[in-house]
Design a protein that fits this description.
Blueprint lengths: L13 E4 L3 H11 L5 E5 L1 H6 L2 H9 L3 E6 L7 H13 L4 E6 L1 H16 L13 E2 L5 E2 L10 E5 L10 E6 L4 E6 L7 E4 L9 H19 L6 H23 L4 H14 L11 H11 L5 H30 L7 H11 L16 H8 L15 H10 L2
């Protein structure tokens, strides 16, 4: 466990939990002095619930417009369409209500507003590039100056991250964009707003949050604080997610899962790295269109098995946090994920062996393959992990 590091503070103001989202939104919009509030929301929630309408009503004269229907993995074209509407509305606050792709889209729309991006190639100069040696080269630019309030409906946890993922459909690669001011100023955790989230999405993004916590706890550069928060998140999720299966209307379990999601992301404050599950997962999402939660369901146990020679003591702590001390963490995770009814193989999510080499080559361009606890020496190592998850 590392004994030195740097804590990176970020510009998030408040995390409000356990209160009705519409009322909190109105309060926070007033506190931030917003006069033109632009909503980016799930199309299903906009059409099939009264919740978006309640937010509009709560905002009153501050409401300026709505964009719904951001596709998965946040393609550049859809970001530009939303930015065009937000620009026309003269938005001074962006509110995102939905899953991880909607949250990331809010960050990207705010970047587009800041730099007047109007064409797909305009995003190129802002994307993080990964060099062949694994160095991450992040361009320097002015970050978004229009604030964001995030009201998440899944457990993917991008709401607590100053990095956004956005897919370049010309190459089908999901790229990362980073700025300290990209992180939402306010995150509202209202468990009632998750009741319409499909069960497969709720549970699979819960495994995504578990993946954040597990790879953070197993990182070789983990410190005492990140380890404590990650193991705490693992304990909460291990209990809360099965309760959500037993009773999908259990708001207490849903709030505990949301709080665990928050804890699972605290390592981003001080740069604790992640590994192969995240790195390969980014490619499976952007290139193979696998939902983010499913990428973690499939890849996390396989990555843990590959990494065992490098971080066995940390993996033992994960198994203990999940209530099964002394057992291999990869086995405990596999059984836990299967017990929630989630997919356990690449074949189950439509990724076949003929796609493995394409995935492996693209994964080499992801930063997290180069911070994996057990060094990745080339495509063959990635193929080994993919075959183990086949």
């Amino acid at each position: 466990m590392t004994v030195a590091g740097t804590f990176q503070n970020v510009s998030i103001d408040r995390i409000v939990y356990g209160r009705p989202a519409a009322a909190v939104l109105a309060e926070e919009a007033e506190r931030l002095g917003a006069a033109r509030v632009f909503l980016m929301v799930s199309r299903t929630l906009n059409r099939e619930t009264s919740w978006v309408g309640a937010m509009r009503d709560a905002l009153g004269r501050r409401y300026a417009g709505t964009f719904d229907g951001m596709p998965s993995h946040t393609p550049r074209e859809a970001v530009l369409a939303a930015a065009t509407q937000a620009r026309a509305a003269n938005a001074d606050l962006v509110v995102t209500f939905g899953g991880g792709s909607t949250t990331d889209a809010g960050k990207m729309v705010r970047l587009a507003l800041r730099h007047d991006l109007t064409e797909v190639p305009d995003f190129d100069r802002y994307a993080i590039q990964v060099m062949p040696d694994g160095r991450r080269v992040a361009p320097t630019f002015d970050g978004p100056n229009v604030p964001q309030i995030a009201i998440p409906t899944t457990l993917s946890a991008g709401d607590f991250n100053a990095i956004a993922g956005c897919t370049d459909t010309r190459t089908m690669l999901k790229q990362l964009y980073a700025s300290p001011t990209a992180i939402p100023r306010v995150v509202v955790l209202d468990p009632a707003m998750t009741l319409r989230t499909p069960q497969w999405l709720w549970l699979s993004t819960g495994i995504r949050a578990l993946d954040h916590a597990v790879e953070s706890a197993c990182a070789l550069d983990a410190d005492v604080r990140s380890m404590s928060e990650s193991l705490g998140a693992i304990r909460l999720l291990t209990k809360a997610l099965p309760r959500s299966v037993t009773d999908p209307t259990d708001l207490g379990a849903r709030l505990e899962a949301q709080l665990a999601m928050w804890m699972s992301m605290e390592h981003h404050r001080y740069g604790v790295s992640k590994g192969a599950s995240h790195g390969i997962g980014h490619v499976l999402g952007g290139t193979c269109n696998v939902p983010h939660g499913y990428t973690s369901c499939v890849m996390l146990p396989a990555a843990m098995r590959f990494n065992l020679p490098a971080n066995a003591p940390q993996q033992a702590l994960v198994a203990e946090a999940m209530g099964q001390p002394g057992r291999p963490a990869a086995d405990v995770l596999h059984e836990f994920i299967a017990g929630l009814g989630m997919p356990r193989t690449l074949a189950a999510v439509g990724v076949t062996p003929d796609m493995f080499e394409t995935v492996a080559k693209a994964a080499l361009l992801d930063h997290y393959l180069h911070t994996n606890p057990r060094p990745i020496h080339g495509i063959e190592d990635i193929l080994e992990i993919l075959r183990a998850a086949a």
